[in-house]
Amino acid sequence: FKGILRDFGNKARYLLPQSQMNLRIPFVCLCVQYVNYRMFCEPMLTSISGSRDPLFLTGVTFPPEYPASPETLVKLTVYDVRDKARDNVSKPQSVSFLGSATFSVSDLLRSKDDQLTLNLRSSDGVLAVGTVLVSRVNMGEMEEGDMDHITADVQQAQKCTLVCESSQGTPIDKDNSPLTGAVFKNPVCKVYKFQTVDSKWMLVREQMEECTLSFSIPRQLLHLYIQEDMRRIQELRDLGELSPHWDNLRKEVIGRYGQVIAAYQETLAELNKITGPSFKPSCSKAQRYLEFIPINLHTQRMRVTCPRQTDAFYDVITVGAPAAHFQGFKGGGLQRLLSRHEAEKKSTAYQCIYYSPEHTAKAQEVLHSVGHLQPLISGLADQLLQAAQQHSMAGLREALKTLAGKTEQFVHALKDELVKSALLALHTAQPGYVTKNQNQTLPGHQDSPVAPLKRQDSIPCHKEYDEEEWDRVWADVAKSLNCVIAMVDKLQEQEPINNNQEQPIPKQVLADVITSHNPEGDWREQLCPLVVRLKECVAEVVVRARRAMTFVLLQEAACSIPQGLFLKQRRDVVFSQALAALACGFVMRLYAGMEDKGFLRQLHLVGLVAQFESLLSTYSEEIGMLEDMEVGISDLHRVAFKITQAKTDDPCDLQPVVIGRRDHYTVEVPLPRLAFQTLPHEIKEGKALQVYPVLFNVGINEQQTIADRFGDISLQERINQRNFEILDSYYKSLSLPCFQTQMDLKDLLGTLGQNVVTKKRKNVEILWLAGTICRRLNGIRFTSCKSAKDRTSMSVTLEQCALLRDEHQLNKDYFIRALDCMRREGCRIENVQKNIKCRKYAFNMLQLMAFPKIYRPPEGTYGKVDS
């Protein structure tokens, strides 16, 4: 393998302070060209104090398809940049070639002290015009004296520098373990060395990765959406014969559901064709077939290594604001559209019975409960009979205990006035129903018997309908259970006394007296009729309850046509994006905390905070995005996580799986057997793990300036105040010792509470405080703007440098240099390149004048580009 070398003189750029314009300071440009493949790394654009013996540190990227080998040749070319124009860093007045040198990777690997001293040669290769020292930096553990050989002049000149970059993660730690490799792909790494306040050196490693869940979670959700809507159509058909008016409404609702299913099937088919990168670039945010995919979802981890200290990790997930970009924001976002639609539905619900959102949510909950509990009760009843057949009293008692618990839960779910009133409403919607006083007809439906009433008439009432029938039906379930319990007690009395016998189950008050004609006979024969009766009663209740709740949902859909189903589609889109991001963050946090017993205990006892930081403005289209995002993040409270044991260690078996329906989803996260066995017992037993999503927003761009002065920022204020209350409530629910000793957490929450009610423009301290509190609470951090590309990059790099300063003693005098270095050369500029094929943040000078100064990128890294 041989490298072909070529100069890229026009790529050499360097910015000098005005006071140093007369200095002749060269810049080193490292270029690598392979057979049939050319790739180079652009040099850093950063300021440097004058020095005639400077240290230049940059990196060369070796792509995975052409990895470096001992024979790889690297050519260093030195240029002299003079009289650079201050106002245009891309067009220096004079760039002249000084010299070049070539070495192979094997030369560097075999060199003494990991250093090569090379002679710079003129263009004809004859004259020696100087020397250059090339050092191989050990990216493993740092020793205190690693950089002692650097001269004082160089230390003064270059305090924070990028020293290595790679498009591939190197397997030096758990960042790149097989566990993470199953979900996180295509890492980009940057490594820096920064000086601390005590003149020591820290090693900082950034790693940015794509997440396979960007596509897999939306695909699974689309499949579940389709299944759920198909079930809904079948349930509507199972309502039986209805009067003409209601039948017409049912047909119209079924037709609308069919349209949604067809659209979702088409989208799913297109998504299944996609291969390649595991993220949706920002330029594709309005594409129809990609609307369920989160925008520019990436993970970013900063690892900090300091002498004689344990390595520290800081994670953040960056994602574009979950919003329905394809559908647009002409009428606002979900929060405004849902409120407006609910008001319109109340005023125009003359064709159907109006049920509030709380009623429809309750109906969905009842449907979910009966659908989940009926098969459980049936299975437990069979287990009870099996234990009776085996003549196992211990097994009988255990099965009965579980059966009684699930049956009582089933009955409790149905003891709701909504079910009784919905059964009455369904009765009035059947053919031939006419009120006793008069025949009523609806406007526009003169030929149909009418039971639906105007909004003010509420739920219909008819004294000929037996209102006590429903109470008797579900009461029969309780009576049947009591009969089963009484029979088990009788069977237990027939057993000989055993000193080791457990305490018998307390007897229940029976509705009926149970006698046995064959007390000494087979246990199964005596129990079977009672168990069968219990299952029949449960089945009868399920049929009635399911039809009643389906009728409620029919009203909700009928009152909503067509706008309601469009809003449901919009909500599905936004939730899909939000859940993909949340699942990515949960998996990353779980993998990082597998060895932290305190974190795992917190996880199963109280759950985790997921803190979303948003930089959207409250003006123009972005206010619609924020309204979408608010609803999408709030809907995440319907999600729980469960850790399972993977079938194999194959990456395909380590992909999270989503189950459930719109009112509640569970994300199952599989772990390899060895990792799973280290978890606490409660997690291994399948306990649902809760996540508490919170959202804080502070707009920082020029549109927010307009909103602050002339617009309305009440949405932002309401979001911040409401989510502060959620965060504060979560903190108060913590009773773990590790948090009770952190008195500063309470102070931080108090300060945050003061800030969210303070009238202050672009109060970014809200975001800093919320992020700090989230990290102290072992939470999951997210940062978003419209595309997670520009403003997000400014926020992530600021957060990283603030952590280096506050937690790792980064020299404060060089805080801005470190910040500029990360923004110029770090993972975030690579993210920009991945999204828009250009290494410039999409800001112009006018926009940046409105930004808080600390959020402005360095000169030369921004320009007006399409995003």
Automatic annotation (TrEMBL):
InterPro entries per the UniProt record, alphabetical: INPP4 (IPR039034)
Keywords: Hydrolase, Lipid metabolism
Keyword Transferase: no
GO cellular component: cytoplasm
Gene Ontology MF terms: phosphatidylinositol-3,4-bisphosphate 4-phosphatase activity
Transmembrane segments: none
Keyword Calcium: no
PANTHER family: AGAP000124-PA (PTHR12187), INOSITOL POLYPHOSPHATE 4-PHOSPHATASE TYPE II (PTHR12187:SF3)
Name this protein carries in UniProt: Phosphatidylinositol-3,4-bisphosphate 4-phosphatase
Organism: Oncorhynchus mykiss
